[in-house]
Amino acid sequence: MALSQLQPFSIIAFPSRQKLAENSRITLFSRRPLNPCQHHPLKKNLQKLSAVAEETSAAAVIAEEKEQEAIVRYDWCEEWYPLYLTKNVPDDAPLGLTVFDKQVVLFRDGEGVVRCYEDRCPHRLAKLSEGQLFNGRLECLYHGWQFEGNGKCVKIPQLSESAKIPESACVKTYEIKDSQGVIWIWMSHKTPPNLEKIPWFENFERPGFRDISTIHELPYDHSILLENLMDPAHVPISHDRTDFTAKREDAAALFFEVTERTGRGFAGRWGREKDRSTPNYIPNFLRFEAPCVLQNNREIIDKNGEKHYFSGLFLCRPSGQGKSMLIVRFGNTRKPPLLLKLFPQWYLHQNASKVFEQDMGFLSSQNEILMKEKVPTRQLYINLRSSDTWVAEYRKWMDKVGHGMPYHFGHNTISLPETPAVVEHAPAGFVANFSASQPAKGGIGSLHAPNPANRYFRHVIHCKGCMSVVKASHAWKKALSVAAVISTALAILISGRQWKVAALLSTSLFLAGIQICSTIIAMNTTNFIRTHRRL
């Protein structure tokens, strides 16, 4: 399609320099000049786009300029962030997590209460997430200091029995809340937690509502993840035949209707343009809520006149530069079909993982280009009204609040990270290569090299259900291997023909079981490669 055929999403004036100068973190960029060649086809097409832009009424331009200048007060610390699924918090070990590269550790104390500390020991700054739980206390494995409750240090092995533990030997704590099966963290130590900011999802409280919840660690920025999740246009193409709903022949123009814009986000209806005229058609309703919550809801009335509620909930935690963690929850009030009940939960989790794997290469490269170009998305994207409305709305929202974030890429503005990305160190050389080739086994001994492209490290280690399936499959595979060897030996040693047949038949069944276990393990530890790229 020629560029001249594409309609720009909107004609937006840059915010005034006086307004932007009020905050040094917001940077204004002008467009880079095009190639001066007079007959360059791109230049001709852009001239046509400019002609269309000039026809836009002055009133519309002024109104949108005022909207972009409406920078709102925002502090990323004064927000609740989705930390983890409550059911997946480990019972016997601390869990290290990050929010905008701020390191925290989550664990259950002796009473089963979930606690959250800063992930560093006040003694010599060792990571507490590398420690262990000892009688309900969190112990630093460097020198054995133990902490409990609100971060109080209760044991220092190197002190004499008569010595008093210093009052400063305590660890900083974070306020957390368990709401609707999710652990939320309040990042500010200056402002008391605002409980009204914890999101509440009405559909999840409806009678008969069932959901499947998964968690995924992803190697790109949370803003790119949110872009991807609020982009329905890519689903038929990128996820073609991944399930029964995505088909590339269904790709079509979409309609979008923004019904709400605030400093906390935006909301609106959307659907396929050709479906708008369908009688009793109810479109999807999307809502983005600061700092990182996206939900897509739909109501469907069945042939019996009963209304059913469907929800796709995406909680996108900004782990840090170039990394994010997603809690995704799909659910509805409709009774699931019998066929769906036959599939185990771990299998459905693997299919969900596959969906995010299919986009991972695109989004990682997008992240790389944004960091390399260092310009607002307006200068890089070609947003279409019929596919990219929510993406443009999100980046414009970033223009309003980005000054209160550690870094951001807005539609017209950006602020780059002030500190370099945190890099976790892994084993080097041969050990790292060998470990990465066998991620589910943990490599040699206790060493391992986390591989963000591998499903085991992105999902399984964060899911108790899938982890138990992998462990059970390994155990069964070993047991069946031993049984296969024994039955084969018996088939060789015994003389009776019917016993030989029985032993060989048993061996065949054991080998089939081994193959099933191997397949389950492979599904949970795969490095995703698109089918058309396989050689």
Number of strands: 20
Structural class: alpha+beta
| Uncertain segments | 1-62, 425-448
Distance between the ends = 30 Å
Mean pLDDT: 83
Form type:
globular
What fraction of residues sit in β-strands?
Answer: 15-25%
Protein name: Translocon at the inner envelope membrane of chloroplasts 55-II
InterPro entries: Cholesterol_7-desaturase (IPR050584), PaO (IPR013626), Rieske_2Fe-2S (IPR017941), Rieske_2Fe-2S_sf (IPR036922)
Subcellular location: Plastid, Chloroplast
Transmembrane segments: 501-523
Task: Report on this structure.
- InterPro entries: Cholesterol_7-desaturase, PaO, Rieske_2Fe-2S, Rieske_2Fe-2S_sf.
- This is Translocon at the inner envelope membrane of chloroplasts 55-II.
- One of its GO terms (cellular component) is chloroplast.
- Its main location: plastid.
- The protein has 535 residues and is an alpha+beta fold.
- Helices cover 30% and strands 22% of the residues.
- It has 12 helices and 20 strands.
- The protein has helices spanning 17-21, 41-54, 58-69, 222-229, 235-238, 338-342, 345-373, 389-401, 429-437, 455-458, 464-493, 497-524, and strands at 27-28, 80-85, 95-99, 102-108, 114-118, 132-134, 137-139, 146-148, 152-155, 175-179, 182-186, 210-218, 254-262, 265-272, 284-289, 293-301, 307-320, 323-332, 408-409, 413-415.
- A 7-stranded antiparallel β-sheet has the order 12-18-17-16-15-14-13, covered by helices on one side.
- A hairpin with a 2-residue loop joins β3 and β4.
- α11 runs antiparallel to α12.
- The chain is globular, with a radius of gyration of 27 Å.
- Mean pLDDT is 83; it is low at 1-62 and 425-448.
